[in-house]
Write a structure and sequence with these properties.
rod-shaped, 210 residues, 5 strands, 7 helices, alpha+beta
């Protein structure tokens, strides 16, 4: 761009300079007494013309660059809108968002229900399953909350807050987590293991009361 502007200015100045060639050639034959004055005037005129040419070119270039920037900005905004439309309209993205929101909702709900538990079975940090067992209401121990990773840690913290017994049993914790849904009773094959945990806890409770 700079070279292009330079060429335009140069071409116009050369064109103007051509008008002075006959006068300059005549100096070679009979140099005038006021040659210095002529040269000074000539140089000032050339600079003046260069200025007159450069300013409009500079302004034109400035407004052109500004216009192009605004157009690119508009295009960028439009591209963002199109991208958002494509993302929002994508069934897979919607499905992932719904699943994530459901996970967050279930996580909060699970942590809140830990205070109802009689015991929390842990892995001790990777898995946590909260069990409730009320012989008068429940046909078998019920899983009221479960989680892995961060959710497991939150369940354990909530259990500590409400003084719910925490039992470390990695095998049982994994089995309960993978085989029982929330609000469902434990399967028959896990009765014995869970019963042992509950019996041990009941024994400790009796000793504590004494």
């Amino acid at each position: 761009k700079s070279i292009f502007k330079f060429l335009i200015v140069g071409a116009i100045l050369i064109y103007i300079f051509k008008g002075y060639i006959p006068q300059i050639l005549s100096f070679s034959v009979s140099p005038p007494d006021n040659l210095d004055k002529f040269l000074a005037t000539f140089i000032i005129k050339m600079l003046f013309f260069a200025f007159l040419i450069a300013v409009p070119l500079g302004l034109a270039d400035f407004y052109f660059q500004r216009w192009r920037y605004l157009e690119n900005l508009k295009m960028t905004k439009q591209e963002v809108k199109e991208e958002l439309k494509s993302v929002e309209g994508n069934p897979e993205v919607k499905k992932r968002i719904r699943r994530k929101m459901m996970e967050i909702f279930n996580r909060r709900k699970a942590v809140k229900r830990v205070k109802e538990a009689d015991v929390v079975i842990t892995n001790p940090t990777h898995y946590a399953v909260a069990l409730r067992y009320n012989p008068e209401k429940d046909i078998a121990p019920i899983v009221i909350a479960k989680g892995i990773g961060r959710l497991a840690l939150l369940i354990i913290e909530e259990a500590k807050k409400h003084n719910i017994p925490i039992v470390r049993n990695p095998t049982l914790a994994r089995s309960l987590y993978h085989s029982v849904d929330i609000n469902q009773p434990i399967p028959v094959e896990l009765y014995k293991l869970v019963a042992q945990v509950l019996a041990t806890l009941e024994k400790y409770k009796r000793r504590y009361r004494k």
